[in-house]
Design brief:
The protein is α/β, with parallel strands linked by helices. The protein contains 28 helices and 17 strands. Helix 24 crosses helix 26. It binds adenosine-5'-diphosphate (ADP) and zinc ion (ZN).
Length: 618
Amino acid sequence: MSAKSLELLHHLFGYDHFRGHQEAIINSAEAGMDTLVLMPTGGGKSICYQISGLLREGLTIVVSPLIALMQDQVSALLQIGVQAAFLNSSLSPSAQREVLKNIANGTTRILYIAPERLVQPYTLQQFQNITLSLIAIDEAHCVSQWGHDFRQDYLSLNRLKDTFPGVPRMALTATATSISRKEIALRLELTDPEVFISSFDRPNIRYLVKTKTDARSQLKIFLSGHHGESGIVYCLSRNKVDKTAEWLRKQGFNALPYHAGLSQEARSVNQAKFLREDAVIMVATIAFGMGIDKPDVRFVAHLDLPKSVESYYQETGRAGRDGKPAEAWMVYGLQDVVHLSKMVDQSDADELFKRREKQKLEALLGWCETTQCRRQALLAYFDEKLETSCGNCDICLTPPKLWDATITAQKLLSCIYRSGQRFGTAHVIDILEGKQTEKVIQNNHHGLSTFGLGKDLNHQQWRSVIRQLLVQEFLIADHERYGALRLTEKSRPLLRSEIQLNLREELNEPRPTSRSQSRSRSEVKRDILLSQSEQMLLIELKSCRRQLAEAQNVPPYVIFHDATLTEMAKDKPKNNEALLSINGIGETKLNRYGEAFLGVIDKFHRETQAESYPPGQE
Ligand code: ADP
Ligand code: ZN
């Protein structure tokens, strides 16, 4: 059984061995079992259903929610010589007929289709008389109503069970919580599924979380460490996306906006640029990203907090799919904390939903404020235990200093209490700092015993203290009363000195991060080091790839990934056999492109030889 699957892996994809659970998953699906595959982004889910499907007789149907993505997946399969097609509303009626014809006559082996299309009675009818090898349901978490990507049409996919009895189904997702696992199996009505759960660790992603001081200049400093690289900058609102993109362009970055308020056309144009050109920064709302399988996104930056730890994991997971070092960077501040919980409070949702959203947000804030390894804390959220701290997050790299803030917190809490628990952050800090503002005088707060008691801390530090107390629930901000700060149950023991409170020191220094810093975990793929002349060769190889990609109107990585070209520049293969030993080159791509790339390498050899042996010196 496995010999055949390994052969396909080698022959089609040009890879030497399966990763993680891939082989077990394929064996199980090939044997006709239903499977549930949980694997992080970049883990290699596509190969699981592609090879499983090809090993069995008949057509493989892949349900995918993203029309934009189908095209690239199909292009990538055609590149390696697998007959694939997609069916969606972007095709003309005659193109659709052509696709259906090729399905009926058995030419097409893998078909991508949107859920809303598949569950139409007419479509289901069309597949009745066709042998199906496998039905893969990608992004299967879309079936969960609690999740962030819920799609109504996914709920109807349970019909596939009775409509196509005996056809194994494979549900795949990169969403990890145990609640969603159960929900997926249940709602899709998988039959006794074999469940494969991979580690959700993304060791190549470095997590960096900073306190927001001046978000734009912090971002600029961060980006200065990412020259010439592609990345995503997430913002909460459309307006902020537009403004940030514009500002970045003025700063000389190739930044483009993406949000649901742009026309369909503008969105596709910007997305295509991001996929096809080098070093494009996409400034986007969360409308952008699901299913973006660009392998070389080198960073994901958050200028605003996401909604939950899970959203954060998903969004940052778009970085570094190729396994090479990437960075997830975020700034957050007191304003975000207040703003987001206000948004939840003021939404029209029912109380239960609001409560859940609030809890999710609090879990995220707790994570932001954590003083232990971020990766350990992140994985713990997905019930996964990482034994040692990671050495590749801000906490591990520069451990935060803790200070005894018991007395400081007592000053703050009693100031809030004495002023009647009716005022917001700014006013409370004014009292502590002893500022005689109009509002202070009006309310006679310069007469309070806490007036001027907090001069030992600056404004920024007070905000940090308040933020940490909010996150740890020693305080709440009452949104019905314009964010007035109030004490909680937890405040009392703190005021009475029954507990000691340690807070993290505010670090104000946004430094550019150097990616050459120690990366202790062995799983991170090392960058292959190229000599100067090899780097020149790499540039030539990339240019060759660009020409080939443009001629076929596909993204460059569909031809070869950067990693493949880098290996080529290092090894400088001279013939087909040597080319085949490079990762990512299978038979079909060898036949198609071998000559072109060998030509580039040959030219390089001749030129460098000519340089080292100038005429007359031989
Ligand atoms: P996912 O869908 O899980 O996010 P993909 O299927 O896009 O991940 O795979 C991520 C990358 O890993 C792709 O570039 C793919 O070609 C590569 N890959 C997958 N399986 C293997 C393997 N066994 N060996 C080497 N590379 C692999
Ligand atoms: Zn760490």
